[in-house]
Amino acid sequence: SANTMWGGRFAAGPDAIMEAINASIGFDQRMAAQDIEGSRAHAAMLAATGIITDNDAAAIREGLLTVLSEIESGNFAFSTALEDIHMNVEARLKEVIGEPAGRLHTGRSRNDQVATDFKLWVRDQYDAAIAGIEALMKAFVAQAEVGADWVMPGFTHLQTAQPVTWGHHMMAYVEMLGRDLSRFRDARARMNEAPLGAAALAGTSFPIDREMTAAALGFDRPAANSLDAVADRDFALEFLSCASICAMHLSRFAEELVIWSSAQFRFVVLSDRFSTGSSIMPQKKNPDAAELIRAKIGRIMGAMVGLFTVMKGLPLTYSKDMQEDKEQVFDAADSLMLALAAMEGMVKDMEANVDALETAAASGFSTATDLADWLVRALNMPFRDAHHVTGSLVAMAENKGCDLPDLTLDDMQTVHAQITADVFDVLGVKNSVASRMSYGGTAPTRVREQVARWKEVLS
Ligand code: ARG
């Protein structure tokens, strides 16, 4: 039989396959609370403007709470024939309160309704992401504070480059996450305009009060163009873009944890709480959480590309294509929140192997740049020449199978006669990092300043 919500002109009901491809109730039931919140605000506004009676609005608002509690307690029979959460809720409302339920949809369409529901849902995810990022930042700052002067190798090309401090490395992630935070906040401020009252696409002839519903739902203002309001999914695309960049940052640290926790590096020990064993190899302790965080970018960025592809080329305004917006956003949001929480746990629990870090920092000729800088300062050599002389000294050490500080002064003077014993002062890793006092540099003093700054920002 024909649909009771829109079937007036239809003689026959839909094919089963049509019902299957058309229905979104399997996933959009996740927006039940938002749908009911939006409808309650709409009903209150319809009464305040005299479009429906106070009695009808009260019955609708009360009845919607009954429906919400049925859904929340799992006592709700979702129907595929009723397509989506909007019609499932309204149909049940009719069963609960009778005739007034039919007045709820006055001056409204499912087009502005779904845009409103989805915006409310995504807005909560912006807030959750912001909270999750802040918590993770605090964990990184705490690591930086304890290890502000632990020395470790800094890498370029994953080759030992120059010694850096553990705190500096941790604070690099605080900077990245700080940008993520500001991206999510910017986008949240931009998206906070209410589609409700745009109706199907053109607005409505009823004297609705869009300021009132916008305020009731925590929006800053109503969206100014009804066509745009029902056609816009930028708020979801921006969420996915912010989430993708954030997930990319998480994947980089996850990769470092995988490398650092290996037997070949031994830079960190991950806690048992965030590791797993092997069913065949008894010695194994695998960094599974880090690997899964490293992988989450795949589905999060996949969702972003997926929704961009759905939206591109859609003519204004609403098209049913847009029903394909939700599942990928739901999945991406779940994945991001889980990745943030897991990363926070791992960062809090991880223990740096301070000796292994320092040993690694001192190997691989990591203070060659310090040596070249010394030649510039002490002997007034042009840097390019100093670079060349230092390269010869590195080659000499490599031939002897030793590190730079193990060369004797005599060895060094065969390469350049004016080198003096003072040079040995700059070859130690502690001196190396302490000397990098330029703003943003790795010196423990500078790291502690950044730790203090971020603790202030995050407090
Ligand atoms: N389930 C639909 C969606 O998610 C709701 C909007 C339907 N609007 C319409 N005109 N068919 O997009």
Describe this structure in words.
- It is elongated and about 100 Å long.
- The strands form three sheets. Strands 1-2 form a two-stranded antiparallel ribbon. A two-stranded parallel sheet has the order 3-4. The chain has a two-stranded antiparallel ribbon with strand order 5-6.
- The mean pLDDT is 96.
- It is 61% helix and 5% strand.
- α3 packs antiparallel against α4 (54-72), α4 (54-72) packs across α5 (85-97) and α14 packs across α15 (383-400).
- By secondary structure, the protein is mainly α.
- It has helices spanning 16-22, 25-28, 32-48, 54-72, 85-97, 110-146, 166-191, 210-216, 226-231, 234-260, 288-311, 326-349, 354-362, 368-379, 383-400, 409-415, 429-435, 444-458; strands at residues 151-156, 159-165, 193-194, 221-222, 268-269, 351-352.
- Bound molecules: arginine.
- Arginine is lined by residues 24, 28, 84, 110-111, 114, 318, 320, 322-323.
- Residues 365-434 form the Argininosuccinate lyase C-terminal domain.
- One of its GO terms (molecular function) is argininosuccinate lyase activity.
